Amino acid sequence: MPLIDLVNKIKHEIAKFGAVGIGAYIIDVGIFNYLRFSGGEGPLFDKPLTAKVISTTAATTFAYFANRHWTFRHRETTSFRREYTLFIILNVIGMAIALSCLWLSHYVLHLKSPLADNISTNGIGLVLGTAFRFWSYRKWVFLEVSEPDLV
Fold first, then answer.
1. I need a labelling partner for 97 at 20 to 30 A (CA). Which of 45, 59, 105, 125 fits?
2. Global pTM exceeds 0.85
3. Which residues, 6+ apart, have CB-to-CB distance to 71 below 8 Å?
4. pLDDT in tens, 22-37
5. pLDDT tens digits, residue range 65-74?
6. Helices 125-136/3-37 angle, 10° precision
């Protein structure tokens, strides 16, 4: 299937996924920056990776419910335990992508300003992690509706 046909087929999912992603992004970035930089030095100022794990966990919980009940509501529903477990596993991989970008920037390149931390984790890491998440949710979490056999 040509790429343009695939995009036309899933454009509504992409738009809804993007809207949910914006909401999750606001939650993630807001909590991350509060924990790191509120009042100059936030409660987790010296722990950027811990702050990112907490902010991503909150955003992921929001994203699961929004995606299940809005973005992918037309897709087959399996057990909550199966979907949520896969969703969490895939989000841990997505979070590892963002954390890797932050780790590289913060600890290897020694770029430790608020701007550098945000560009690495909430810019580059976000784009790479989002592409992975959309693909993996469609493939493993929110399954295509199976057509019943008419034989």
1. 45
2. no
3. 13, 16, 17, 20, 142
4. 999 899 999 999 999 9
5. 999 999 999 8
6. 130
